[in-house]
């Protein structure tokens, strides 16, 4: 397998994964999990915060998936310096879009009120809440 084919397949698979996560987030069908979506203490605080954060982050995540998929398609038949440029632009562009989406999603989740019946200043993780010490 050539380097361009390998990089093209990696970018296409990453693009497909990002498009899937973006669509699920947009449709509010992405469940809280360990691997996909915006995962900060604020977004994991409640199902509503996770859903809202991932809905807001969906457009940049979808754009990142599109950039990866397009870069992968272009990389398949390319070599040399053009391959390097394609992979670099697709990689940096996707990471930048993902960071922007993550920041937007985190800000939305942080602005949401704490769920009823929870501690006011806590860090929630899968099993429960622990108080933040200041």
Keywords:
mainly alpha, 2 strands, 63% helix, 3 helices, two-stranded antiparallel ribbon, 134 residues
How would you describe what is shown here?
- There is one protein chain.
- This protein is mostly helical.
- The protein has one domain.
- It contains 3 helices and 2 strands.
- The protein has a two-stranded antiparallel sheet with strand order 1-2.
- Helix 1 runs parallel beside helix 3.
- The chain starts with a helix and ends with a strand.
Structural class: mainly alpha
Radius of gyration: 18 Å
The main pleated sheet reads as: 2 strands, antiparallel
- Please provide the ordered H/E string of secondary-structure elements: HHHEE
Task: Give me the number of helical elements.
Answer: 3
Spatial shape = elongated
Mean pLDDT: 88
* Whole-number count of domains: 1
**DSSP strand count:** 2
Assembly state here? single chain
Biggest sheet strand order reads 1-2
Tell me roughly what share of residues is in helical segments.
Answer: 55-70%
Summarize the structure.
The protein is mainly alpha-helical. The protein contains 3 helices and 2 strands.
Secondary-structure topology with pairs:
Layout: H1 3-26, H2 47-75, H3 80-111, E1 122-125, E2 128-131
Antiparallel strand pairs: 1-2
Helix pairs in contact: 1-2, 1-3, 2-3
């Amino acid at each position: 397998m050539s380097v361009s084919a390998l990089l093209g397949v990696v970018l296409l698979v990453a693009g497909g994964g990002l498009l899937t996560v973006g669509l699920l987030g947009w449709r509010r069908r992405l469940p809280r999990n360990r691997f996909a979506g915006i995962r900060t203490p604020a977004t994991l605080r409640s199902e509503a915060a996770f859903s809202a954060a991932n809905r807001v982050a969906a457009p940049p995540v979808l754009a990142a998936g599109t950039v990866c998929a397009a870069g992968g398609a272009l990389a398949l038949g390319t070599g040399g310096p053009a391959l390097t440029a394609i992979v670099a632009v697709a990689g940096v562009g996707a990471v930048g879009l993902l960071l922007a989406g993550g920041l937007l999603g985190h800000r939305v989740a942080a602005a949401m009120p704490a769920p009823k019946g929870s501690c006011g200043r806590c860090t929630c993780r899968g099993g429960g809440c622990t108080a933040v010490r200041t």
